[in-house]
Design a protein that fits this description.
The complex is a heterodimer. Chain A is an all-beta fold. In chain A, 0% of the residues lie in helices and 51% in strands. Chain A is built from no helices and 11 strands. Helix content of chain B is 0%, strand content 55%. Chain B contains no helices and 12 strands. In chain B, the strands form 3 sheets. In chain B, strands 2, 5, 6, 10, 11 and 12 form a 6-stranded mixed beta sheet that branches. A 4-stranded antiparallel beta sheet of chain B has the order 3-9-8-7, with no helix packed on it. In chain B, strands 1-4 form a two-stranded antiparallel ribbon. In chain B, a hairpin with a 5-residue loop joins strand 7 and strand 8. The chains are: A mainly beta, B mainly beta.
Chain lengths: 114, 112
């Protein structure tokens, strides 16, 4: 079955540590996205990538980094520079250049800073 | 700038009652509009989408939405809710450029 997987489902981090969240898709989509979700805030775009080896900052990129070395994978690193990293993180993908831009979502990773 | 407003943070309805969730958008051109649903601790699932044509669109799980250009609205409706409909609902608009702008969500509670 085609879809998006995110791992791990729950992640705990000590302050000052970097942590990487995994996102893999087998939908053959070119575009991939990372969102952060906080209660009452909706989804806020962190980074997105429309093609391998290229990515753009979203609305809240500070303290985060990404890479896109393969079409299927778009890992997100939460660095120690992110002041309030505890949140639910969602990865999504879509067909690039589609005027509809229907996005498909993974199950999410909940990150907690201890 | 494009934006999406969901005026209701929480909505409570009784099981079997009808439902309407409100969504207003701000966008200059013809919008591409979506409703997504999220169960607790899960990702988002697409309920329905509007691109053009018939302003009443049907989605999954018995949901429908009506696009009203004059009111800049895209309200989600269901004639009779089930306990399993309890979730958070997000309205979204695509301004192009491979992006989607989401509203802040409406959490739906169902009374038995």
């Amino acid at each position: 079955d085609g879809g998006i997987t995110q791992s791990p489902k729950y992640l705990f981090r000590k302050e000052g540590q970097n942590v990487t969240l995994s996102c893999e898709q087998n939908l053959n989509h070119d575009a991939m996205y990372w969102y952060r979700q906080d209660p009452g805030q909706g989804l806020r775009l962190i980074y997105y990538s429309q093609i391998v080896n290229d990515f753009q900052k979203g609305d809240i990129a500070e303290g985060y980094s990404v890479s896109r070395e393969k079409k299927e994978s778009f890992p997100l690193t939460v660095t120690s520079a992110q002041k309030n990293p505890t949140a639910f993180y969602l990865c999504a993908s879509s067909i690039r250049g589609s005027i509809y831009n229907e996005q498909f979502f993974g199950p999410g990773t909940r990150l907690t800073v201890l | 700038a494009q934006s999406v407003t969901q005026p209701d943070i929480h909505i409570t309805v009784s099981e079997g009652a009808s439902l309407e969730l409100r969504c207003n958008y701000s966008y200059g051109a013809t919008p591409y509009l979506f409703w997504y649903v999220q169960s607790p601790g899960q990702g988002l699932q697409l309920l329905l989408k509007y691109f053009s044509g018939d302003t009443l669109v049907q989605g999954i799980k018995g949901f429908e939405a009506e696009f009203k250009r004059s009111q800049s609205s895209f309200n989600l409706r269901k004639p009779s809710v089930h306990w399993s409909d309890a979730a958070e609902y997000f309205c979204a608009v695509s301004p192009g450029e491979d992006k989607i702008i989401f509203g802040k969500g409406t959490r739906l509670h169902i009374l038995p």
